[in-house]
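Below is a filled-in request sheet from our internal design queue. Each sheet records the structural input a requester submitted and the sequence that came back. We keep these sheets so that new team members can see what a complete request looks like end to end.

REQUESTER: design group, bay 2
PRIORITY: normal
MODE: inverse folding
CHAIN LENGTH: 430
BACKBONE (tokenized):
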């Protein structure tokens, strides 16, 4: 497939209503977990993005049938599956290929996975996955590929060494098939972890503590079929709040899933951007103060990411671009990944007043006028942040490697153009 480039004419006001897609990071573990049951599963509101398409291909390669029966509806039936050799090229395209470990181990008793891919945003350790699988009775061999074996998974009291999102998801799926009760302590509690747990409950699993950092699973469950709707993508909602703010545009984000937006709204409020709630819609007015709130006593404030329910790491790049348009000084502290902040050199070239202190911290002094520039997207979120900068900048920008953006955001240029943006996608969508 030829690489995708966006050509963006900036400086335009937007307006209207937009609905977020289903959560990418819910859809991925849920598609993988559909392999746990022999019965058919229907998933709706599945984002039709590169990552989900790749995982669907991987599911087919182990013998499951997986068909798109509507634009965002996916039917999966894993009546019989085999722990076949998985295509290393497909696995290397997405982080989520590691999520096949739990269901395939549970169904087949063994699985060998080539290393997963995903965003290059710093070292992405797998140790927590290994720790959890071993405690659930599996043996793990990690060489050029990852091999997991367990003749029988057994419930255990597992304390994760960090609240890793995908490790919690893998452990949760394995625990549903394990004999006995499993406690997952120091578990991740992100909305997508909750979504996966609710899907497993819909299949027949018995899970307590969903949304907390101690998840209790009573296994093994007898699983049936289910029809399940993926929850809205809170990271996409946060990206759209940033977009509205930097373009000073009034936007309504319909069916935004407001129950999961508290820390995100609080983060943007620190930048002087306040959203209203109307039912499940989020309303972003255009008349924001965009004034960064100093800490008490006039001290320089900070916005930092942390595991849920704190401000999410996947919104840090968006928040940095947004801060360039706000009045004041703020320290942006990316605690989780060590390479995510390097994209700020592009914002600096565009006119952003940013000092990168070290790989984890950047000081942003705003507001600054951004000028259009050529850019290359290094990862999904930096790519989306660059798109926000380009839409807000004076003049024309080009974003190369926009394929990265499309790993996570569905038909984004089409949807933003419907709000008044001018983004040309090359090669154009037919
Ligand atoms: C497919 C998927 O769902 N990907 C998400 C998942 O990736 P993923 O599951 O790979 O991320 P992890 O939760 O394992 O960890 C992310 C990074 O944060 C570090 N870490 C984690 C917990 C902690 O308390 N302290 C800490 O520093 C880890 O060492 C690692 O470097 O979660 C990340 C963190 O929300 C998101 O960026 C990814 O979009
Ligand atoms: C880092 C991300 O994705 P992945 O874990 O799939 O690379 C993301 O969604 O921002």
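RETURNED SEQUENCE:
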């Amino acid at each position: 497939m030829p690489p995708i480039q966006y050509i963006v004419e900036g400086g335009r006001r937007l307006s209207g209503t937009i609905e977020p897609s289903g959560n990418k990071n819910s859809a991925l573990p849920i598609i993988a977990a559909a392999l746990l049951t022999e019965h058919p599963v229907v998933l709706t509101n599945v984002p039709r993005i590169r990552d989900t398409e790749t995982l669907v291909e991987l599911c087919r390669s182990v013998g499951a049938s997986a068909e798109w029966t509507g634009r965002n509806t996916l039917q999966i039936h894993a009546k019989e599956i085999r722990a076949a050799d998985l295509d290393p090229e497909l696995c290397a395209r997405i982080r989520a290929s590691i999520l096949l470990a739990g269901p395939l181990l549970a169904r087949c008793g063994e699985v060998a996975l080539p290393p997963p891919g995903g965003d290059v945003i710093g070292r992405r350790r797998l140790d927590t996955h290994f720790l959890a699988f071993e405690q659930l009775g599996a043996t793990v061999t990690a060489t050029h590929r990852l091999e997991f074996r367990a003749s029988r998974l057994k419930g255990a009291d597992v304390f994760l060494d960090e609240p890793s999102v995908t490790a919690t998801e893998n452990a949760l799926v394995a625990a549903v098939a394990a004999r006995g009760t499993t406690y997952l302590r120091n578990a991740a509690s992100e909305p997508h972890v909750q979504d996966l747990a609710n899907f497993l409950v819909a299949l027949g699993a018995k899970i307590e503590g969903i949304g907390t950092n101690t998840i209790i699973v009573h296994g093994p469950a007898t699983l049936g079929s289910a029809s399940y709707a993926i929850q809205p993508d809170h990271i996409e909602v946060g990206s759209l709040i940033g977009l509205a703010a930097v373009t000073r545009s009034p936007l309504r984000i319909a069916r935004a899933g407001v129950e999961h937006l508290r820390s995100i709204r609080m983060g943007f409020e620190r930048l002087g951007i306040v959203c209203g709630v109307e039912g499940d819609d989020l309303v972003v007015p255009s008349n924001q103060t965009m004034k960064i709130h100093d800490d008490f006593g006039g001290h320089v404030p900070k916005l930092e990411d942390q595991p849920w329910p704190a401000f999410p790491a996947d919104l840090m790049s968006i928040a940095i671009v947004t801060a360039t348009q706000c009045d004041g000084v703020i320290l942006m502290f990316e605690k989780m990944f060590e390479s995510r902040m390097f994209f700020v050199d592009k914002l600096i070239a565009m006119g952003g007043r940013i000092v990168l202190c070290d790989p984890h911290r950047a000081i942003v002094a705003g507001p600054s006028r951004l000028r259009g520039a050529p850019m290359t997207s290094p990862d999904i979120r930096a790519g989306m942040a660059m798109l926000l900068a380009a839409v807000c900048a004076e003049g024309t920008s080009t974003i190369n490697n926009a394929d990265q953006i499309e790993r996570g955001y569905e038909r984004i240029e089409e949807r933003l153009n419907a709000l008044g943006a001018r983004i040309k996608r090359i090669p154009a969508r037919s």
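SHEET NOTES:
- The chain has two domains: 5-21+232-426, 24-229.
- The longest strand covers residues 65-70.
FILED BY: M.R.
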